[in-house]
């Protein structure tokens, strides 16, 4: 008897990304970030990678932090805001006792299936073209926000 894999179990409970070669979406994210050191184009897309991943995993963030991240991404994409400008503008979100992360007990992941996830960007053993895949991922997220 052949058993079908439980796709829900093998997929991220929040973004729906499938495991890739046994790696969770968090592990794929880490692997993509590790490629940055050898790819200047990917390194230049660091903000886009982190923003995209975090927007697809909102349960850990406060509503205010998510709103700030959405605004920052739109400003970057549509208003040519620089990373330095964005850092300066949103640094107050994490100052002092201001929280950007929800308390562990308050985190309630809700599955939202996205057209593209980290699993479409991180292709094991294929770092070439990753920066272009990031741009496609970001554009898909922007359309779905």
Topology diagram in text:
Elements: H1 7-10, H2 25-35, H3 40-44, H4 46-55, H5 63-78, H6 83-90, H7 118-121, H8 130-144
Helix pairs in contact: 4-5, 4-8
What does the model show?
- The chain is mainly alpha-helical.
- The chain has one domain (23-103, 113-144).
- Helix content is 50%, strand content 0%.
- The protein is built from eight helices and no strands.
- The chain has helices at residues 7-10, 25-35, 40-44, 46-55, 63-78, 83-90, 118-121, 130-144.
- The model is unreliable at 1-8 (pLDDT under 50).
Question: What is shown here, in short?
Answer:
By secondary structure, the protein is mainly alpha-helical.
Main sheet, how many strands, which sense, barrel?
Answer: none
The number of distinct helices, counting runs of at least 4 residues, comes to: 8
* Secondary structure: number of strands: 0
Broad shape: globular
Q: Strand fraction band?
A: under 5%
Helicity level: 40-55%
Order of helices and strands: HHHHHHHH
**Number of structural domains:** 1
The radius of gyration computed from the alpha-carbon positions, rounded to a whole number of angstroms, is 16 Å
Mean pLDDT comes to 88
> In whole angstroms, how far apart are the ends?
42 Å
Low-confidence stretches: 1-8
**SS-based class:** mainly alpha
């Amino acid at each position: 008897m052949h058993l079908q894999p439980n796709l829900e179990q093998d997929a991220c409970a929040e973004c729906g990304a499938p495991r890739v070669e046994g790696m969770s979406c968090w592990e794929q994210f880490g692997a993509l970030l590790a490629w940055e050191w050898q790819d200047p184009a990917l390194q230049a897309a660091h903000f886009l990678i982190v923003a995209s991943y975090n927007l697809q995993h909102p349960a850990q963030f406060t509503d205010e932090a998510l709103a700030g991240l959405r605004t920052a991404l739109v400003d970057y994409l549509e208003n040519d805001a620089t990373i330095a400008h964005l850092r300066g503008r949103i640094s107050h979100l994490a100052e002092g006792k201001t929280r950007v992360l929800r308390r562990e007990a308050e985190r309630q992941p809700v599955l939202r299936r996205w057209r593209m996830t980290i699993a479409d960007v991180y292709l094991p053993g294929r770092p070439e073209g990753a920066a272009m895949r990031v741009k496609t991922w970001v554009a898909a997220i922007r359309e779905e926000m």
